[in-house]
Amino acid sequence: MRYRIGSQSPLQKAKTFYETVEVLLLQGAAYIIFCYFTTKKNIINSSDIFIGF
């Protein structure tokens, strides 16, 4: 297959895709941990967490 000049190669696209997924997973994990601890301590109701974000 030929690619236009300036377009990303499949390897670069895959790398960018996995970096994006990695960031999303880290953000998701941080959010889940935050929700878990705030719910465990009963500082914030779960409804307040969803309104706050």
Query: Helix- and strand-based class?
Result: mainly alpha
Strand content: under 5%
Q: Please, what is the average pLDDT?
A: 74
Helix fraction bin: over 70%
Provide the gyration radius in Å: 19 Å
Report the sheet with the most strands, covering strand number, pairing sense and barrel closure.
none
> How many DSSP helices?
2
- How many E strands? 0
Q: CA-to-CA gap between the ends?
A: 44 Å
Number of domain modules: 1
Note the main attributes of this structure.
2 helices, 53 residues, mainly alpha, 0% strand, rod-shaped, single chain
What does this structure look like?
- The protein has helices at residues 10-41, 46-52.
- The protein contains two helices and no strands.
- The N and C termini lie far apart (44 Å).
- Helices cover 74% and strands 0% of the residues.
- The mean pLDDT is 74.
SSE inventory with pairings:
Blueprint: H1 10-41, H2 46-52
Summarize the structure.
By secondary structure, the protein is an all-alpha fold. The chain has helices spanning 10-41, 46-52. The protein starts with 9 loop residues before the first helix and ends with a helix.
